[in-house]
Each structure stands twice: as C-alpha cells, then as structure tokens.
Specification:
The protein is mostly helical and 165 residues long. It is built from six helices and two strands; from the N terminus they run αααββααα. Strand 1 and strand 2 form a beta hairpin.
Length: 165
C-alpha cells in the first residue's frame, strides 16, 4: 500500500463528488439522479485492482499485464464507464447499449474530476473533443452527455460573465 496511491484515490473520489455537487448546485442534475456517487470507484480498493494500480502508477510501472487485468475488472464492475456498456457480439461486431442516466452523470463527473484537480473547469471540453471519437456510446447516451456538457459550459460562461471586472 502506498501513501501516494491512497492520496490520489482520496483526492479523485473527492473531486468526483465536487463535480457532482457542482452539477446539483447549478440545477443541471438533481441529487437523486446519481445514487451511486457516494461509492464511486470503491472497487479500486479491491484486491483485484488496488495492488496493480498502485504498482503501475507509483511503483515500477512495469506490470502492464496485471494493470490491464485490474482495468478490465474495474470497467466490468463499475457501470459509470462507457466500456461497461459496449457489447461485443460474435455476429454483429461491437455495439453500444444505452447507459442509464445515473451512470452517464457519474461518468461525466469522473471525467470532470481531473478539471477540478487542475482548477481549470473548462479542461473537460478539450478532453472530450480529443477523445469522443474513440468513446463508443449509444446515440441517446451521447446526446445526453453532450447536452450535460453544453449546460456545464453555459453555466461556467455565465459565472465567468458575473465575475468579470
């Protein structure tokens, strides 16, 4: 167990919750829209994930296979990851299923948590633009997520106008 990884996890989970409560406080979602936010990333403390993540990010970084297994465990046990909702079929190839709104909200908060870490709340928009073509989402889920992101941008811009000298 490393203090660095524990500190990272604590900060990340705190920032996910900050992102969620920002959405709630700005009227974008309601508190009941995401009941799982309080247990965000709990599986990272699981034996199937913790040591591999810790070693990969704060150790030698050479246990790529173990990290990949931990990541696979994580996305299969945390429905707020888009990969959880991608179905790989023998006949039809890859297809996304629609995510429940609560998972989509938690996913946005997960992404946005890194903006809270840097203090640049606009960072999520560049991140999403850079990665959106690789993120496999159901049409309705993508529309929902982009609608939330647009509301975030609008609210940030409105607050920037208010706070401008």
């Amino acid at each position: 167990m490393s203090k660095q990884y524990n500190d990272y996890l604590s900060e990340h989970i705190s920032n996910v919750k900050k992102a969620f409560y920002w959405l709630v406080n700005h009227g974008i979602v309601s508190i009941s829209d995401c009941p799982t936010i309080s247990s965000h990333d709990a599986s990272k403390y699981d034996i199937h994930e913790y040591n591999a993540y810790d070693e990969y990010f704060y150790g030698s970084g050479k246990n790529f296979d173990e990290f990949n297994l931990a990541w696979l465990h994580h996305i299969h046990h945390n429905s707020h990851h888009w990969q959880y909702w991608v179905l790989i079929n023998d006949e039809d190839g890859i297809g996304p299923l629609e995510m429940p709104k609560s998972d989509a909200i938690e996913m946005i908060c997960d992404w946005w948590s890194f903006s809270f870490k840097t203090g640049n709340l606009y960072m999520i928009f560049d991140w999403y633009e850079k990665h959106k073509n690789g993120i496999i989402l159901h049409f309705n889920t993508r529309n929902y997520i982009e609608n939330i992101l647009n509301k975030i941008r609008k609210e940030l811009n409105k607050n920037a106008e208010i706070n401008r000298p």
